[in-house]
């Protein structure tokens, strides 16, 4: 979430900085209430933040890119604009994030996709949008980085569980073909994908899942 601040009244001394309370609020990203109450602590210990790990450094570096940051804010504010429908370019923007940046950013994008779909499921079910999202997951499930494949399987589980991804012959054939591939990456992706789909149906066994169960067993 972006930090909102008054550029004309920034804390310019150490004492002022340590006595300033920063707060984030999703509502405030697009509309402020008439009054905001802010409590400033009389005494507050200096915050000793740990150093960023490699994953955090990659994410920070990505957000330092003005184009990336601008597109990301555009996605965050889609719902808040009360648009009658989701822009056709939204899925394309997410896809561009996925294909342009490092594997750590890919993992973040896959997590964001799940939130995006849940928040806009009725709009994202229209036209060919589910196919575009599924195509992205197909690419992610065979990514050379294992962390990306694992996150892709989680996304596939989540979106299958809410029936955004339909379990049909096309999905079954795709994962079965991956299983037959001699590449370790593809085979691992196939197992992760099949396991995600099976776990999303704990109480039922649709006909399309039976070939997956046979392959896993």
UniProtKB/TrEMBL annotation:
Where is the Proteasome activator complex subunit 4-like HEAT repeat-like domain positioned along the sequence? 1-119
Cellular compartments per GO CC: cytosol; nucleus
Name the Gene Ontology molecular function terms of this record: peptidase activator activity; proteasome binding
A biological process term (GO) from this entry: proteasomal ubiquitin-independent protein catabolic process
For this protein, the record's InterPro entries field holds: ARM-type_fold (IPR016024), HEAT_PSME4 (IPR055455), PSME4 (IPR035309), PSME4_C (IPR021843)
> Where do the Proteasome activator complex subunit 4 C-terminal domain residues begin and end?
186-216
Q: Which PANTHER family match?
A: DUF3437 DOMAIN-CONTAINING PROTEIN-RELATED (PTHR32170:SF4), PROTEASOME ACTIVATOR COMPLEX SUBUNIT 4 (PTHR32170)
Protein name according to UniProt: Uncharacterized protein
């Amino acid at each position: 979430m972006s930090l909102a601040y008054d550029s004309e009244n920034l804390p310019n001394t150490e004492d002022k900085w340590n006595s300033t309370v920063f707060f984030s609020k999703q509502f405030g990203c697009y509309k402020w209430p008439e009054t905001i109450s802010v409590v400033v602590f009389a005494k507050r210990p200096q915050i000793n933040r740990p150093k960023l790990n490699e994953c955090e450094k990659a994410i920070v570096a990505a957000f330092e890119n003005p184009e990336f940051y601008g597109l990301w804010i555009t996605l965050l504010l889609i719902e808040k604009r009360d648009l009658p429908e989701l822009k056709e370019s939204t899925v394309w923007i997410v896809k561009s994030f996925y294909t342009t940046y490092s594997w750590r950013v890919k993992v973040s994008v896959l997590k964001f996709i799940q939130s995006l779909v849940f928040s806009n499921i009725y709009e994202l079910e229209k036209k060919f949008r589910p196919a575009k999202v599924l195509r992205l997951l197909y690419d992610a499930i065979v990514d050379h980085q294992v962390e990306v494949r694992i996150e892709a399987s989680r996304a596939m589980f989540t979106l299958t569980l809410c029936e955004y991804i339909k379990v049909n012959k096309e999905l079954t054939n795709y994962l079965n073909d991956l299983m037959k591939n001699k590449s370790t990456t593809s085979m691992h992706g196939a197992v992760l994908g099949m396991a995600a789909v099976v776990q999303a149906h704990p109480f039922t066994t649709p006909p399309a899942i039976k070939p997956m169960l046979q392959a896993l067993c």
